[in-house]
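Please, structure for the following, as tokens.
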Amino acid sequence: MKTLTVSVVTPDGPVLEDSFDMVSCKAENGELGILPGHIPMVAPLTISGVRLKRESDTERLAVNGGFLEVRPDKVTILAQSAEKPSEINVDRAEEAKARAEKRLQSKQDDVDFQRAELALKRAMNRLDIGR
């Protein structure tokens, strides 16, 4: 069976490089499923999980934005950050979620609501993948 070489790279360096049967991720325009032989494309990614399937095994990564580049035999994810479930500190993510929710609920004028919403999305994504 054909496979895709998947590379996940962040500014801190490579996170993953391996072969998989399928890649599922969430782009700004919706969910994408990439199989070997997919047409070349580039798509911006949202804060979401990436599912990497190999036979009956599925790996997941928490990705915080970036870009997906697809070629017929290779998928490259250039992400602002990417974490494997084993690297996620669930307690820290819970604290970040609570802080972001508190900021969003406050009625103060000095709160950057857009920044707080992004922090909440990142924390929820990390919790989803980390659990």
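Helices lie at 90-105, 113-130. The two ends are 31 Å apart (CA to CA).
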